[in-house]
Design goal:
It is built from eleven helices and nine strands. The protein is α/β, with parallel strands linked by helices. It has one domain (6-313): NADP-dependent oxidoreductase domain (TIM Barrel), CATH 3.20.20.100. The strands form two sheets. Strands 1-2-3-4-5-8-9 form a seven-stranded parallel sheet. The mean pLDDT is 95. Residues 10-312 form the NADP-dependent oxidoreductase domain.
């Protein structure tokens, strides 16, 4: 994340390279991040790291997402003209499918964004491709319409998996899977999974969900938001029962947990030693929560990479 500038590109190039050398093996992106600069940068860094022997392609999981409108920073054109010329006139979506001036779930649009992501990153196959924050549309579109659009998006993802363009797919959310069912932005995971089973059968490729989780935004582990087989349970429990993996975002809450961390949270990671930083303790809190496969955080500066990756030396055994 951050500004779409050459200087930020250079910082990310250094931080991604260093992260891979220290053992980080998941890269998470989206076509709209920094107006495509983030994906384009990955397309430069990853082959360089492979060539230098830092990592092999099969040792890193590359994720991206589609849903939010992606602008191309290289295009010198006003946004309205860009939308009209790039998406409307090419019939990638209809105006009524474009919600809030920023979001679309049209199958044609999602497939277009996937092709863009593959080209930007220079990848034949993206390991995990996420439908990005579909709950965004619930503020302006009837729930039944949004769920129908999600089903259409899932059908498109199954087709892309069959074509070898993605290995698996999922849904990345901010509010959708962690908020209470009474919340307007709630998404029913069990029902959405049933769409994948209807379309792809038992061999469907809907395998992963993403949601924020940290000691402040802890609902994924504590809020019984998801009904599964007639019982309400938190997202992490629901995903386990449904056979889905969970990747969590906002591990240090956009930097807010890197200082003045709650002492109770800090004390949960004595294995890190007395010199542990608040950021390290916050990371360990998330990565040792039962049910979490990977905890994501943004690291633009090498100094933060060095600090945060020190946690890798310690076990991530689930806390009881």
């Amino acid at each position: 994340m951050g500004p779409d500038s050459d200087s930020v590109d250079r910082e990310y190039m250094e931080s991604i390279t260093r992260s891979l050398s220290l053992g980080i093996n998941v890269i998470d992106c989206a076509s709209n991040y920094r107006n495509m600069r983030s994906e384009l940068l990955i397309g430069q860094v990853l082959p360089m790291a492979i060539k230098q022997g830092i990592i092999n392609r099969n040792e890193v999981v590359v994720c991206s997402k589609a849903g939010y409108l992606a602008f191309d920073y290289r295009e010198d054109i006003d946004p309205y003209t860009y939308i009209d010329e790039t998406y409307i006139k090419t019939e990638l979506f209809k105006r009524e499918e474009f919600v809030g001036g920023c979001h679309c779930l049209s199958p044609a649009y999602l497939k277009n964004q996937l092709e863009l992501s593959r080209r930007n990153m220079g990848l034949e196959t993206i390991d995990i491709y996420f439908i990005h924050n579909p709950e965004t549309q619930l503020s302006a579109v009837p729930r039944s319409t949004v769920l129908s659009r999600i089903k259409g998006a899932i059908a498109a993802m199954e087709e892309c998996c069959a074509e070898g363009k993605i290995a698996m797919y999922g849904i990345a959310t901010w509010n959708g899977f962690r908020v209470n069912a009474s919340n307007k932005q709630h998404l029913p995971l069990e029902e959405i999974l049933s769409y994948a089973k209807d379309i792809g059968g038992e061999n469907h490729r809907f395998k992963v969900v993403q949601a924020p989780y940290n000691s402040f935004l802890h609902q994924a582990a504590t809020e019984p938001s998801q009904p599964v087989r007639g019982r309400r349970m938190p997202l992490l429990h629901a995903a386990h029962h449904l056979g889905l993996s969970v990747i969590t975002s906002a591990t240090i809450n956009q930097g807010n947990l890197s200082k003045n961390l709650n002492p109770d949270v800090r004390n949960k990671s004595p294995e890190l030693g007395e010199q542990r930083t608040d950021a390290q303790a916050a990371i360990q809190f998330a990565r040792t929560t039962p049910g979490i496969v990977t905890s994501l955080l943004g690291m633009r500066k090498v100094m933060h990479v060095e600090e945060n990756c020190a946690v890798i030396r310690y076990p991530a055994h689930p806390r009881t």
